[in-house]
């Protein structure tokens, strides 16, 4: 039976046709992205350690940043609502770029222009029958934090493996319901952080609507706004350092089996790897028997994987019966040894000699759970079936498939 994945953009015709509503936030303004090419600008900025440059002055406020290839750059400015679209012709756009970089003779080739709103929205429903929304069709954010593309990739990864299982007959149609259950709360969490980042930008002069303040920014009487902008810069950290929120999310759904433990909670900026059910698999470099390198993140790429410790042999039979790949940490794969003289722990002094990196505590606890009769969960003797490995694994397998 065919399904439709509607990844048809922020104004999704499919979403509108199905009558799916959105939880939308306020509009902070409208931006214009001028995409241009300038070899001279690339050369002049070759030694700059910065990717993004913010410009705040009386004539023009915005950001200039390189896209990383073919001398392509982007100027992002707030659109003047008093001007018609026709006012943003090639001559005006070239002039905007030159004013932003401070070079009236800069070579500029305008490639394209994009208008977009500083707004956010998350669809109230992510699935209607055999139609599933994805990408910007299901949620949209301003770019302040990089959550849009990252969320879209994570959403799609979550959806596609489930869709493949259903289409192959390996799981029931109900598995697709866990897509919204798991990813919508993450989208809402990301949306809230993005909008907080957007509000904080106002303290740097970005999105500022007090034209008279900006007009005097370079005059002696502009000291107050200069101080406000300077003091507002440290608050932008959570816009650029977001690994904790990007990787530290936890999914909950009918297919995720809680193990009774408290999760490691990441902050926006600091990622705390964890093996808690529903978390992204933590990365750790491993070596196989042929000394080939692989990451823990890639282990489930071909399907479900059961990780056990060195004493997890009793799990082999139930795993084989269900066709689940079993990996024994310490035998099949060994954590890579790292020279701590070359790669000292962050914030610590180098320790003498190489040593093996260990799995994160929560992952290690679960991989070694076979010593207490479990693999993948801590020991819960009061819970029915936990002492029966086959029953435990079958129950978990059926939980995902139904």
Describe this structure in words.
- Mean pLDDT is 84; it is low at 345-386.
- This protein folds into three domains: 4-17 and 122-247, FAD/NAD(P)-binding domain; 30-117, D-Amino Acid Oxidase, subunit A, domain 2 (D-Amino Acid Oxidase, Chain A, domain 2, 2-Layer Sandwich); 285-401, no CATH class.
- It has 402 residues and is an alpha+beta fold.
- The strands form six sheets. A five-stranded antiparallel sheet has the order 4-5-6-3-7, with helices on one face.
- Strand 5 (61-66) and strand 6 (72-78) form a beta hairpin.
- It is built from twelve helices and 18 strands.
Q: Unreliable stretches, pLDDT < 50, 5 or more residues?
A: 345-386
Largest sheet strand order: 4-5-6-3-7
Give the SSE string. Answer: EHEEHEEEHEEEEEHHHHHHEEEHEEEEHH
Q: In total, how many beta strands? A: 18
Count helical runs.
Answer: 12
**Strand-pairing-aware structural class:** alpha+beta
The CATH architecture of the largest domain can be given as 3-Layer(bba) Sandwich
- Taking all Cα atoms into account, the compactness measure Rg is 26 Å
Mean pLDDT: 84
The rounded distance between the terminal residues' Cα atoms is 17 Å
Could you tell me the CATH topology label of the largest domain.
FAD/NAD(P)-binding domain
What's the number of structural domains? 3
Quickly name the level 1 CATH class of the largest domain: Alpha Beta
In CATH, the homologous superfamily of the largest domain goes by the name FAD/NAD(P)-binding domain
What does the overall shape look like? elongated
Quick one: biggest sheet?
A: 5 strands, antiparallel
Percent of residues in helices: 25-40%
Strand content: 15-25%
């Amino acid at each position: 039976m065919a399904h439709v994945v509607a990844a048809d953009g922020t104004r999704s015709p499919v979403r509108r046709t199905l009558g799916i509503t959105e939880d939308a936030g306020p509009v902070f303004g409208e931006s214009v992205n001028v995409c241009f090419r300038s070899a001279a600008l690339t050369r002049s900025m070759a030694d700059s350690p910065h990717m993004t440059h913010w410009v705040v002055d009386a004539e023009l406020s915005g950001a200039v940043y390189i896209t990383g290839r073919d001398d392509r750059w982007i100027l992002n400015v707030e659109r003047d609502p008093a001007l018609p679209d026709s006012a943003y012709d090639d001559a005006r756009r070239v002039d905007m770029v030159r004013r932003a970089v401070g070079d009236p003779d800069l070579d500029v080739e305008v490639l394209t222009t994009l208008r977009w709103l500083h707004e956010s929205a998350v669809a109230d429903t992510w699935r209607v029958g055999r139609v599933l929304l994805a990408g910007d069709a299901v949620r949209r954010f301003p770019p302040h934090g990089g959550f849009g593309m990252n969320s879209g990739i994570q959403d799609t990864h979550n959806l596609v493996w489930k869709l493949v299982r259903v289409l192959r007959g390996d799981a029931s149609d109900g598995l697709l319901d866990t897509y919204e259950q798991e990813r919508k709360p993450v989208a809402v969490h990301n949306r809230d952080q993005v909008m907080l980042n957007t509000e904080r930008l106002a303290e740097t002069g970005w999105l500022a609507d007090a034209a008279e303040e900006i007009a005097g920014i370079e005059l002696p009487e502009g000291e107050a706004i200069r101080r406000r902008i300077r003091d507002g810069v440290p608050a932008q950290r959570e816009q650029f350092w977001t690994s904790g929120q990007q990787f530290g999310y936890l999914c909950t759904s009918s297919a995720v089996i809680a193990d009774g433990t408290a999760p490691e909670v990441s902050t926006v900026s600091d990622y705390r790897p964890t093996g808690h059910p529903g978390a992204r698999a933590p990365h750790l470099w491993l070596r196989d028997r042929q000394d080939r390198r692989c990451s823990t993140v890639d282990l489930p790429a071909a399907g479900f994987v059961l990780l056990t410790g060195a004493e997890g042999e009793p799990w082999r039979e139930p795993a084989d019966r269900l066709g689940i790949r079993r990996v024994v940490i310490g035998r099949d794969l060994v954590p890579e040894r790292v020279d701590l003289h070359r790669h000292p722990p962050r914030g610590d002094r180098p320790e003498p000699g190489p040593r093996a990196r260990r799995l994160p505590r929560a992952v290690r606890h679960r991989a070694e759970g076979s010593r207490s009769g479990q693999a993948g969960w801590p020991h819960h003797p009061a819970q029915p079936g936990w002492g029966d490995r086959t029953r435990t694994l079958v129950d978990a397998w059926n939980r995902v498939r139904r």
